[in-house]
Protein: Ribonuclease HI family protein
Amino acid sequence: MSTKDTTFIYCDGSSRGNPGPAAIGVSFQNNDGIEFFFLSEKIGNATNNVAEWQALHRGMEEAIKLNLQKIRFRLDSELVVKQMKGEYKVKNKDLLVFKNKCESLKSSIPNFEIQYIPREQNTRADQLANIAQDTKI
Structure:
């Protein structure tokens, strides 16, 4: 996939307590690295892995609503990336629900790509998840 007209969607989930209060952060950026849309949401109590999956799911939902065609999702959760690519089996029933939802949404995205990135390259999504965690509402 060429990067021209590609949207890069950085996703991150966080849980304080694992399980505990959880939130997601999702940053939509153009191929120049300029953010044009973001999500910063509390998701209730969840494990870190559920939060990571929910961040991907919400990013996919919004990408479809925005009618984005070429998307490269970037996550610092190696587990979610490898499960989504089919390299790891999904044994946890809660995670399997999200995998199935994401697989279903994937068919609505003409050019879908997902890749693992180191945490240091996912700072904006992490920041958005933490903003949601720290918001009192």
Summary: The chain has four helices and five strands.
